[in-house]
């Protein structure tokens, strides 16, 4: 937590599928961050990771953007949207696109 924001990170090198240890951690953390008292103290919930759910890289288009990003979206996007996450931030080699609380795709820059 920092100021009005709650931050939580997850590893794209480990499973985020339902039933995985990391998924259980994220679900518990986001549920805690969404308690009314927690949201009053920290209204911004920010999730960060390495590999993106949205991608625009021509270099890794087929491997990362079509396959990997789609898997992350399928596994995590419903959870993040239900939890009211304000910003999902991924930073690899500059190929990611973030999403904000309106589910709009936001280009990421260095």
Model description:
Helix content is 37%, strand content 23%. It is an alpha/beta fold and 110 residues long. Strand 5 (96-100) and strand 6 (105-107) form a beta hairpin. 22% of the residues are buried. The model has no long low-confidence stretch (mean pLDDT 82).
What's the layout of helices and strands?
Blueprint: E1 5-9, H1 21-33, H2 36-41, E2 44-49, E3 54-55, H3 61-82, E4 87-90, E5 96-100, E6 105-107
Parallel strand pairs: 1-2, 2-4
Antiparallel strand pairs: 3-5, 4-5, 5-6
Summarize the structure.
By secondary structure, the protein is α/β, with parallel strands linked by helices.
Considering DSSP H and I runs of 4 or more, what fraction of the residues is helical?
25-40%
Number of strands: 6
Oligomer: single chain
Radius of gyration: 14 Å
Which residue ranges are poorly predicted, with pLDDT under 50 across at least 5 consecutive positions?
A: none
Helix-and-strand structural type = alpha/beta
How far apart the termini lie comes to 23 Å
Number of distinct helices: 3
Mean pLDDT: 82
Gross morphology is: globular
Strand content: 15-25%
Major sheet size, sense and barrel closure: 6 strands, mixed
Order of helix and strand elements from N to C terminus = EHHEEHEEE
Pick out its properties:
23% strand; six-stranded mixed sheet; 110 residues; alpha/beta; 3 helices; 6 strands; single chain
